[in-house]
Amino acid sequence: MADQPDAAEGPTRGWGELGFDTSVAHPARVYDYWLGGKDNFAADREVAERVLAVVPGLRLRVRENRAFLARAVHFLAGEAGIGQFLDIGTGIPTANNTHEVAQAAAPAARIVYVDNDPIVLTHSRALLTGNAEGATDYIEADLRQPEDVLAAARRILDFDQPMAVMLLGILHLIQDEEDPWGIVARIMAAAPSGSYLAMSHPAAEIHPGQMEAQKRYNERVSTPQRLREHHEVARFFAGLEMVEPGLVQVHQWRPDPGKIVPTNIATAHGGVARKP
Ligand SMILES: C[S@@+](CC[C@H](N)C(=O)[O-])C[C@H]1O[C@@H](n2cnc3c(N)ncnc32)[C@H](O)[C@@H]1O
After folding, report:
1. H-helix segments, the chain
2. C-beta 6 within 6 A of ligand 1
3. pLDDT tens digits for 204-216?
4. Centroid of ligand 1 to alpha carbon of 90 (angstroms)
5. Cβ(89) to ligand 1 under 6 A?
């Protein structure tokens, strides 16, 4: 993107004029750093490294989250026959974005991306373009106001047709007192029968360094995280029918044949479920 400053060059060059506070770490940019991206600043890199120091395998784990996204979307657009995707908490564009995987399987698929970080908006408008048949749209909205998300999505998606609601790596950024379970229930209540929920959520109980990692993250990042245990994540799927193999660590969800993931890798909880 030639008309934008290079994030890697530092926090003061240009982005401030665009309205970004680059001196405070942001979830999308910290995640981008872990994925090996360049759209992050010194504050993001510092906290990302502090967390990596206590969870050294984290880079592999975030890549496994992206691989889960690709397999889940491939299943939804292919086997499940879903043609509409509401991907909330898009993140900075990287490999295997939802529209690329979905439109490879179903060229006419429509994808609506939602994020509340303006830097994601800037990149997404430029990079997340659809193909000739399908369409890709972008909404700047906050999941904590689900009615706003739904109102904007209704202008683009057909709420009489099944859709996939994607909530990958976002619900841990919503605190218990903000009622993430109620938010998910409101979104899924608006989706018609035959719709799907795909979700991944970093785990509280799998990796021994995880709680120290959360402490370090929350000391510096603008939006604190709340890691959750399997039973807390399972509650997000209340009233829905889990697709096999259920809620598992993301690398265990329908792994690609022949793919070898280290057996001791500890990843997020992930699953896909259908609204009856
Ligand atoms: C860790 S990234 C996950 C990106 C992608 N979904 C994935 O799993 O690879 C989380 C994203 O959620 C966005 N986000 C966090 N809280 C949000 C909220 N309340 N509303 C909308 N987006 C939010 C962040 O800006 C960030 O882009």
Report:
1. 27-34, 42-54, 58-77, 98-105, 118-127, 146-154, 180-190, 210-220, 230-234
2. no
3. 887 778 888 889 9
4. 6
5. yes
